[in-house]
Amino acid sequence: MGSSAAKVAAKESVGPVARSMFSMSGATPVLTPGEAGSPDNGGAWLNMVAHQDAKKLIGFYHAEDHEFSADRSSRFVAWKSICACSSADNGLHWQKDGQIITSDTAKPAQPTWGGCGDFCIVRDEQHQRWLCFYQEHYLSVAMSEDPVGKPGTWKKYFNGRFSEPGLGGRSSALAGLEGHAGGNPSVHFNTYLKKWVMVWGTWDEGSPSPNSVWMSTSEDLLAWSPPKVVVAAKGQERNWYPTIISESDTKADQDAYLCYAHFADKSKSNRQFVVRAIRFLPSP
């Protein structure tokens, strides 16, 4: 993988073993689907949260619109977008602040999987900006220099520059990852490699190894090394929603954990939560 590689240890925790590491009491929803006609009428998934002070939080969530004019009964097909939200009481209550990234393609009348979503956001302190890695089939990036990443401040990366508006602008696939379509990326800075590391899951189409977890590295968050498969799917398997966790999910050292969802049969929704110990090693 360019100048680095990741070795996955044999020992892993799967399903009930991993769940036994903690316990939870009852939960109260704090971010729920929006009303009919809203971009999140089909669901709101909080993907990233950051502190602004002791009580104030900003957040960004994956929004799904399940309403299509030609078929209003659709519930399992979504047009996606990315939205901002904020909390003044350390997360007990959230205010929805609006969309930050939408597709340059209008939502069709017929139920269609599409739009922009399945993302992660990291803070690029060197350039004092937020970077959002999202998918519109292929992986792309958008940037905001606003301290809280408010709507209207995001620019999509297109043809070598952050030049297109986040709302409805055009986008380019990340350099180096054009042939590896997928989503739900997780990006962290690796203090051992002194590089950024991304893992993501590939779709059924647009990748030489679909439904698998892939990994790539970058020095500038824009150009990425030739990716390699970390967890390959076999037969009807699917491995999705990967995250690398160590000190946090945005910073890791040589030893970390790769967490992901394993589907033994991709035609079904049943999945196992898998945790695998990994170690980053320099290339020979």
| CATH class group | Mainly Beta
The largest sheet, given as strand count, sense and whether it forms a barrel, is: 5 strands, mixed
CATH architectural grouping: 5 Propeller
Structural class call reads mainly beta
CATH superfamily assignment?
Answer: Glycosyl hydrolase domain, family 43
What does it look like?
- The protein has 284 residues and is an all-beta fold.
- Helix content is 1%, strand content 48%.
- Strands 2, 3, 4, 5 and 6 form a 5-stranded mixed sheet that branches. It has a 5-stranded antiparallel sheet with strand order 7-8-9-10-11, with no helix packed on it.
- The protein is globular, with a radius of gyration of 19 Å.
- About 5% of the residues have low confidence.
Secondary structure elements and pairings:
Blueprint: E1 4-14, H1 16-19, E2 43-51, E3 57-65, E4 79-87, E5 95-101, E6 114-115, E7 117-124, E8 129-136, E9 138-144, E10 154-158, E11 161-165, E12 182-190, E13 195-202, E14 213-218, E15 228-231, E16 238-245, E17 251-252, E18 255-263, E19 272-282
Task: Record keyword descriptors for this entry.
19 strands; single chain; Tachylectin-2, Chain A; 284 residues; 1% helix; mainly beta
